């Protein structure tokens, strides 16, 4: 690592402390400080920092600004359900609580700029002010002028101000097609295994030596590094399993130096954790409890065991019917569900290219009529078309076992309709029944084959016999 | 109206209060009384009905509480633990390491969505009582966007849980920065905690009186997780996870299907912010069984649903909604229906009251009793002399009625324990000849005399080959069931069964038990393995083998155990024959039994489409207008326009030409009006007719029978088929 550069205008000791507190990010901190220049000097208007999840973007930026006591406002864009909240938080951080009074109810960027200029006339900046916009990718979904506006906010408000955007997504995906002011880009690379080891070893347990914890982290990374490099997740796993690691020590069966013994104890346990906790098949609380109660983790039941759903009788059949409607081509219904379907030639019926592909393509939407028609032919008793049957369909939708296709999903309606109407005006397409069909509700079955097979087994219905793909 | 003023002026007279009271809105009682002939009587019935319902309701509530007690308790424990972990994050390494995670209790409740509200209500009450005052529940339909979800959480926390003096201080906080929800929540939380710890105990405040910890957790209950949009949930968790340092948040997810929904809805990166613990509630079928057990299978309540009624209710439950709540509502409906339509239900109450009320019955009511089918049957069995007396003398009848009512109560007191005994004995038999659930056996017993059924026959045969220990355990359970019985019959039965049981046990003591056991069990096993219970065999075959065995055994000499077993079975059989007679055979059973299963089905399982078609094809059914009455099915021109239009459209294909339709309609209507002499008026009439037609068509469109189409000009598309 290069010798830390001298950063004029900042307290040497503080910078040194900062580097220690944020290990493995010395280069990035150095670059940032260099970009920022001295506190009184103007800085580049906008800086865009990107890097994968948990690469320390938020942590480093905020730590830096906080430790060096620079005036700054940190806003997470997830929380900003409207632009007003964003403006408000910025104003609050810079000018105190009375500053937001003059903000109108639904402010535009122009309102914000106006008020900011007023206030900064009263309280001019002595040092560069920083606005940190975390999860900046969400800015793209807000008002179209917001992102370009923030990129050149320095110019708009005529203040010593810099906007730092943090995101997991590269800048290319941000650039609006109208073009905008280009920010400076700064990349936070993923941590390497060594770096992860160094950072994770930082959280040593007070009752054990740092070396012990470090060796524990080493083992942990040995197991998990190939599947997971997320610092947060790794830290979570480390916390979860450390108790088990220390068990032989507590019991007096091993010394801190018996690293092999410790490894033998923890390794299978970690492997098991990888299959369960990491895949979310067992929740962490259960995992912890199983450990503390000295129960064998091996007989922890995963969620996949609990994964069966009890349904009322007709709901089961409705779901089966929905599944059939989703995965069978509509033209085959006659063959499957009509008692006397007459002569439908087998060769005719089975089209080669359709074979086995339906399940790969995923469920297809179907209208209510078809669902009910299939339902009535598969359910073995006569069912009156009562209100409760219909109510069950809607409750299946609430349970997310069926999906009700809204028109947008269905065909991306506005675009689709627009495309159609333009084709019609161009007389390339004569408008057929599409328009009529559009306003009938359509459904899709949202359950897996295994799930539906389990369901049909409980009612003694052999679903594979009715599935086109399995014929 | 006069004024005592001597000056001229304007006086305002407010309408005096009594005049307004006159048009009071009808309450339940008025509706109940309405339409029945005897007002005083139905008022009484209404009161009895309400009292009875109160009792039944409190019973269901206690069932509900018991049922979820265990799971709710462990949930409370979890909440307390995570709160204490929040407190100890300074000292405790593990807590600190996991500080950024939000604890989540995933409460899997089953698909009966309507029942969940009760559970959540009692859950949040308990939480508020013992863990924290800060509990909010939100529903998906209130939260279409993250904004609303945050708003709801903030509003309910700051607004509801605080007293007035608190509100004053807290209202200006969110007012000012009402936008940034969680930051204002943090501020609010800080002040709320400070206030609560510094407050004097003398002040009347719900929240400081109980000693919550210094930082009580904020619990957010998402009642129906599945219905939330994944996007909203995702954002909400992200936002909340940024405040885990300041706020001890805890989520409770109400899940209807299974926990994998959480995984499906949320990406891996989000679930890593949660530490989820699963709580699985007991299944709704179990819940139903307890409710039936407490409400129906007990002599405690005089009101009884008949077999058909129970079948309708249970059918609705099993086939349609799995909702215990709806089941209870259905039962309540039966109760109301029974008291409403059966005048003699005044006698459907506790024994003493019923006896007293019999004395007060009027002559009319006595006549009604005489017309009861069950009573007529009873009378026919009496001596001619007695018959005359019963039919003429009210006094005599009253006396008899009292006796009969007492008999009915006694019948119920014996019925249910014996029913349970029979169930205990037969519920372990292979293939459950009499049903696995007691409710199935109960329905059989209500419908006919159970011992006359084939199923009972085969059950008894299976009982006859029961192994000793099985028989013993079953007998033990029977003894326990009969133990609290108070009637003489039950005490006798208890004594007998106890005796039989003792003898069975003693057999063990002095007969060579091993040989005996092997002998018996070997035989039973033979039979079962031969038939292959695992294999699919029909009942018929099983019976055949049993019969063969019986024959072969007859030739052999029987062991003492076999003799004793036969004696036991015979005794049980005699008990069944004595006490499990079907209720219809009891005189006056109509007083207690609600038999209107048709009405019930009609009301609880409505068929909107059929009724609609009925109304359109046979308007007489609903309008009760004599002119509309015709059996031929021809279009009556007197029918409402929509009916005529509907009838005509049934004859069309998929697309209906509007002009032809109008023509046909006019023809029908003109035929009704007869000749139309005045040509000047003709135009006018035509226009009216046209308008009527358009209106009728748009009504049909509203009902979903036709819809406009662009496929062909001046056509509408038909949406239904068949159904003339
Ligand atoms: N260099 C580091 N030294 C110490 N801890 C670190 C370092 N980098 C990251 N961390 C820790 O990792 C966690 C995640 O980091 P951070 O929140 O900064 O990630 P991020 O890049 O902002 O991720 P996201 O894109 O998800 O917001 C933080 O809690 C922080 O404590
Ligand atoms: Mg971040």
TrEMBL record, chain A:
Keywords: ATP-binding, DNA replication, Nucleotide-binding, Nucleus
Superkingdom, taxonomy of origin: Eukaryota
Annotated Pfam families: AAA_16, ORC5_C, ORC5_lid
Main location: nucleus
GO molecular function annotations of the record: ATP binding; DNA replication origin binding
SUPFAM superfamilies: P-loop containing nucleoside triphosphate hydrolases
Domain annotation Origin recognition complex subunit 5 C-terminal: ranges: 311-421
InterPro entries: AAA_16, ORC5, ORC5_C, ORC5_lid, P-loop_NTPase
Subcellular location: Nucleus
All copies of domain Orc1-like AAA ATPase, residue ranges: 21-164
Coiled coil: none
UniProt keyword annotation of Nucleotide-binding present: yes
GO biological process entries: DNA replication initiation
UniProt domain ORC5 lid: residue ranges: 213-280
Gene Ontology cellular-component annotations: nuclear origin of replication recognition complex
Function as written in the Swiss-Prot or TrEMBL entry: Component of the origin recognition complex (ORC) that binds origins of replication. DNA-binding is ATP-dependent. The specific DNA sequences that define origins of replication have not been identified yet. ORC is required to assemble the pre-replication complex necessary to initiate DNA replication.
Family under the similarity heading: Belongs to the ORC5 family.
Subunit composition and interactions: Component of ORC, a complex composed of at least 6 subunits: ORC1, ORC2, ORC3, ORC4, ORC5 and ORC6. ORC is regulated in a cell-cycle dependent manner. It is sequentially assembled at the exit from anaphase of mitosis and disassembled as cells enter S phase.
Annotated protein name in UniProt: Origin recognition complex subunit 5
Organism, as annotated: Conger conger (Conger eel)
Taxonomic lineage: Eukaryota, Metazoa, Chordata, Craniata, Vertebrata
Automatic annotation (TrEMBL), chain B:
UniProt KW DNA-binding keyword: yes
Entry coiled-coil feature ranges: 483-510
Signal peptide span: none
GO biological process: DNA replication initiation
Stretches assigned to the Origin recognition complex subunit 3 insertion domain: 359-595
GO CC, one annotated term: DNA replication preinitiation complex
Domain Origin recognition complex subunit 3 N-terminal: 1-347
InterPro entries (UniProt xref): ORC3, ORC3_ins, ORC3_N, ORC_WH_C
Presence of the UniProt keyword Phosphoprotein in the record: yes
Pfam families found in the cross-reference section: ORC3_ins, ORC3_N, WHD_ORC
UniProt keyword terms in alphabetical order: Coiled coil, DNA replication, DNA-binding, Nucleus, Phosphoprotein
Subcellular location per the Swiss-Prot or TrEMBL entry: Nucleus
Family recorded in the similarity comment: Belongs to the ORC3 family.
Function (record text): Component of the origin recognition complex (ORC) that binds origins of replication. DNA-binding is ATP-dependent. The specific DNA sequences that define origins of replication have not been identified yet. ORC is required to assemble the pre-replication complex necessary to initiate DNA replication. Binds histone H3 and H4 trimethylation marks H3K9me3, H3K27me3 and H4K20me3.
SUBUNIT field: Component of ORC, a complex composed of at least 6 subunits: ORC1, ORC2, ORC3, ORC4, ORC5 and ORC6. ORC is regulated in a cell-cycle dependent manner. It is sequentially assembled at the exit from anaphase of mitosis and disassembled as cells enter S phase.
Protein name in UniProt: Origin recognition complex subunit 3
Organism: Conger conger
